[in-house]
Amino acid sequence: DLAARCQRLRLTAILKGFLEGLPGDAVIAIEAGDLAAKSSLRSLCESHAAAVAVPCYHDSGADLGQVINETLRKAGLTPEPDALAYLTQHLGGDRMMSRSELDKLTLYLHGQTRVTLADAQGSVGDSAVQSLDDVIQAALDGRTEALDLAFRRAMMDGESPVGIMRMMIRQMQRLHLVAAQVAGGKSADAAIGALRPPAFKRDAERLSRQARFWPLPRATAALGRLMEAEAQCKSSALPDEVMCARALLEVSENARRQRR
């Protein structure tokens, strides 16, 4: 849309000004999504003497199938056809991430020779859903390095920064409800048990852990910051990915300080 185009043109102008007065031996690496041949940012990097554009293509279904077969074969494993189909469908286009998931699967099947559909389903979940959950949980836990990896994966998978912010806000709202109940004298477990919709076992365990990092004042401040960041994602001149990543990093650093 027009707003997004204006944002890209402004970023291109900023980069062009930087390249014209490049200080010393400075090197900047810019990650971008799929840029059309007519993209102003891509055209600038392809034509400027001080820049270069390097294409990095996502794995297609055929490429991913080859990666899966090679990785499993090196571990002495042969995937059954339905297992291979499931893995090809549920792993993303980021080869590093795919290999990480496959390494987990080979560890899970150590000592075996075949990979069944049940094995694949038990080790590798839905990539899109899992990548979003990884972002949210890493931020709330204060695992900053894991957050960086999970956020990059979500962007590679085509997730929307605004969508991530909204999901993050919903989770922080639940933590805020728990924190308010705890501040009023309830135990964390009782507060989590009163949530609607209810938190099932895995989510309840996460909330119980995270409630220690997010007492009411911190949860209130973080919720306000996230809502502000969501609005900025839709209105700021900066790319929404930048605004989202900045807010998530602030949340993660806040939680990390509480963990110490």
Automatic annotation (TrEMBL):
Report whether Nucleotidyltransferase shows up as a keyword of the record. yes
Q: What is its EC number?
A: 2.7.7.7
Extract the InterPro entries matched here.
DNA_pol3_clamp-load_cplx_C (IPR008921), DNA_polIII_delta (IPR005790), P-loop_NTPase (IPR027417)
Cellular component (GO) terms are:
DNA polymerase III complex
Catalytically driven reaction(s): DNA(n) + a 2'-deoxyribonucleoside 5'-triphosphate = DNA(n+1) + diphosphate
**UniProt KW keywords:** DNA replication, DNA-directed DNA polymerase, Nucleotidyltransferase, Transferase
Q: Which GO terms describe its biological process?
A: DNA-templated DNA replication
Gene Ontology molecular function, alphabetical: DNA binding; DNA-directed DNA polymerase activity
Family that this chain belongs to: Belongs to the DNA polymerase HolA subunit family.
Q: What is this protein called?
A: DNA-directed DNA polymerase
Naturally occurring in which organism (per UniProt): Elstera litoralis
